[in-house]
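Collaborator request, handled under Task 6.
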Amino acid sequence: MTWHGPTFRISDGEHIDGAWCLVWRRHDLLDEHFVEHLFVYADGRITRGGYEATDLAGLERLLTTGKLALEPPHARERHDEPPKRSKWDTRYPEPLTHESFLAEVADKISELAGRPGARDLLWDALGAWWRDPAEATLASLRDAYLAVPAHMRVYVLGDMDQQDRPLRMLLTGLGEAVDGDGPVATEKAHEWARAYFAGLFEGESAALERQAVLHADDPEDAPRPPVVLYEAVHPGGWPVEPGDFVLRNDYDAPFTYAGRTCPTVAHGYWALSAADPADHDRILGAAGAREAQEAGGRAARRADWPGMRLAVMAGLLRAKFDQHPRLAEVLLATGEAPIVYTGSSDARFWRDEGRGGGRNWMGRLLELVRSELRAAGTVQTPAARTAETALRAATRTGSQTGENGGA
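Structure tokens returned to the collaborator:
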């Protein structure tokens, strides 16, 4: 069965994950079948379409009574049967039955709830047997294999070529025929199965070891929630105490870049984008960042601007934070958190729009400059600055005391 998702429902304010597949519903009056969505959820609730909630037992009754079918009625018609061959030679998935489908639904519910499914438990049992190939672990592996829904067993190892043959051979007792009509399990055949799993586990171990080497610099700590820079208006002027708002491009923090004074990053960006030098002074002299943006947006753009704008913006941000250590402290205080630059005034190239898109280049450039500031180590943290201020005050007090005592 093919599952689709993700989906969810809200119950008492709780978000409950779900998934859905297609089944066939019999219309009681017309005695015809119609396609319908079957939803299953992490708490075990099952619905046909958006109504008629039930559970696994109810789903079994619907299947048994024929109110639901797993395939259209005409699909059950069979014509010439192919000649029978050993399952070992030609391995196809077992037919989807009511019993195996119910097992698959139970497995899907476990997966949605964050619990291990039948395939996860099989791999756990396989690993336990590999570490300790005793009769008890082999018996547990056999139980785990049989717990996988029958129609899903053929590809449970994820191997399109060998399919589940190594498992079936390993789990067949010596002298017995695999599946009753396959090859007889011999010690040599068991050695072949063990060699298969040796390559599987040793290859996985080598791959994990190599990945650990290649990804040695990957952060191990859990990711921090993002710092979201909201667009805001301050009619009474900017707050005295600096906050995350100082990281935005419209914050008044004059700095020098390329020999010119820029009242804000926005002023500098739009002035440098203009093709006509006469527009530069007009944009830089705009009353505020919004006016500078509007003036720059109306001016003719430099032909090479698309290839330059990222480098120019990065340079403007470096100049702003290099020349305003207090603002750099605010940027450094965001730690390793992702920075999300939002709003409606900036183009989608610069801002984040959540599910709606946006490339968030401003957020990414702020993270870059933050990393450069941290690597340079030229900006003091608030604690270090407080300690230095206290030390200077103590030194100054001591010096004054000594002078008075000498007098």
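The cover message to the collaborator said: "The radius of gyration is 34 Å. Strands lie at 4-11, 14-26, 33-41, 46-48, 51-54, 68-69, 227-229, 255-257, 260-262, 339-341. Please let us know whether this matches your experimental observations."
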